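Fold sample X.
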Amino acid sequence: MFIMKRRLIIAYALLFMVGNSFAQESEVGLCGGVSFYLGDLNPSGVFMGSKPAGGIIYRYNINPLLSFKSTALFGSIGASDAKFGKTDEAKARNLSFVSPISEISAQLELNFMRLYNVEGKNPFAPYAFAGVGVFSFNPQAKASDGRWYDLQMIGTEGQGLNLDSMGYDKKRYPLIGVSIPFGLGFKYNFLRYYSIGLEWGMRMTFTDYIDDVSTVYVADSVLRIYRHPIVAELADPVDYHDKHAPGTARGNAQTNDWFSYAVVTFTFKLLYKTGCSAMGTKSSRVSYKRR
């Protein structure tokens, strides 16, 4: 319920921004596709574990080469050592997670060709984009009791134990972070008011905990005594006699996690301006047409 409310707030915020930016160069629309992640549990499998994603788009066309774009995207990601582990060590670790992933961002698009909405002018263009965003996530895993648990809350790497004398004083990681979206796309204008396209973008982040895996193992006995046996199970889901020694590497804290969206886009112009120098041809006479 909390995640749904958060997604609605993001969507309403973007729509509010769109509602206050109506202009002849503006367009709004929807997108749909897939999302995936790269990190400790999927180090190099581009598009592996892809899950459905979608969202809404607002674009302001500054001129035929440059546009401002804002997006609100929603999807899910996940991975497991059992499926994506490339080494015997990774498969023996046996960790897994799933997480919703949501992002609101502001971007600049640079068209490689001049793009127009009027007849007789170029109607398509490949483009590159880059910007900044804010994203949210919440890694979860399923335990042997059949229930799903929020991994950040239970502290699988000892977060929140506050046992300074034992060396366990880590704080819980935030579930909201900053992303740097960048990528490539292609768009095509048709019937004056409409545009379709394809877009793929990576998201660089500044956290290594999208998958809840980063540093070292905590002693199994500590988690059982000071937390719960389920926490100990999810922190190191192997047979009791195969538990990893405290302090051994659970993940690679030197590299942060990434996530990605690949989507098909469809947008329409909010107002159309004939003779517009930004997306049409220059003219001394200006008229506005609503759809």
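Fold sample Y, listed below.
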Amino acid sequence: MYSLIVVDYNALDTTIEYICRCYDRLGMEGAGHTVIVENGSSEGTLERMRLRFGEPEELQIPEIPVALYLYRNAEQQICYCNSGANLGYAKGNNLGVSIAQAMWHDFGYIISNNDLVFEKDLDMKYINNLFHQNPAIGIVGPKVITPAGEIQSPRVWQSPLRRLFVTYWVEMLGSVLPKKAYSRLWRKCCFDTDVHAESGPCDWLMGCFFFARADIFHKAGLFDEHTFLYAEEMILSKRLEAVGAYPYFCAEQEIIHNHGQTTRSAISAIRVKELDLNANCYFYETYWGCGKFTILATKLNFKVYKAVFMLWQKVKSLLKRKS
């Protein structure tokens, strides 16, 4: 069995509906145990959980620093906790994994966002066979596509030059170039998705949804908590590599991901880019071996980019008012 881990940020109703859909698609074998880690406001959350799942059992586990509320029914056990702060992706999921390990000791975890759509059931027997037949597989991820049909996973490694310097400037050009010209430029300079990938080992997988084998995941040290948002998947891939494991792309399974909606609604555009830069700098310095000069040059480049970006936002705002 797997423990489903979902980190929520002020969208508990969406998360509740999602875990119910997830259970329907995965069944007891895939989502019989669930942990919801609330990274946002706790106002009214316990009441909404009670109305949907009944009265909880309040638990205290010595190694877990927060109160836990366990909801049971004939099909599922759902553990809810409020983290007390916005821990971000890595810390939030690590807390959820620690809770699941302490309570159930399942074979694996399903790390998942709450903004996914399953058009058909995922084949849990197939996923389990992959793990049992290939002991070095640490995580398994499905094909991830957008509602428009664009493939988002698996991903391939990019050089520091592309990831840390080129991407930001190309993104900015997207607001002035014709759509087709920008698309060609992006695909040539920044695109890192392997749209023709077949099932097998890959560089790294999207973190919106994947299955993790518990023993290898813990051996790899879970997620690196030095990042708040972004680059976690690349870091995890390197951590798996360090313990002799690897990520596996499963082209036969597919999910739809409404990518970035929660992030964009909660964080300003420039703040998102700053989080992305900091996380990627950390990855390339810590796990890729980039020197401090490269990281310093990257941050100086971003300061110039940020100044131009903010100026361009003001210009666009003025032009919009005049029109």
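Sample Y note: The CA atoms of residues 39 and 319 lie 38 Å apart.
Also: The two ends are 58 Å apart (CA to CA).
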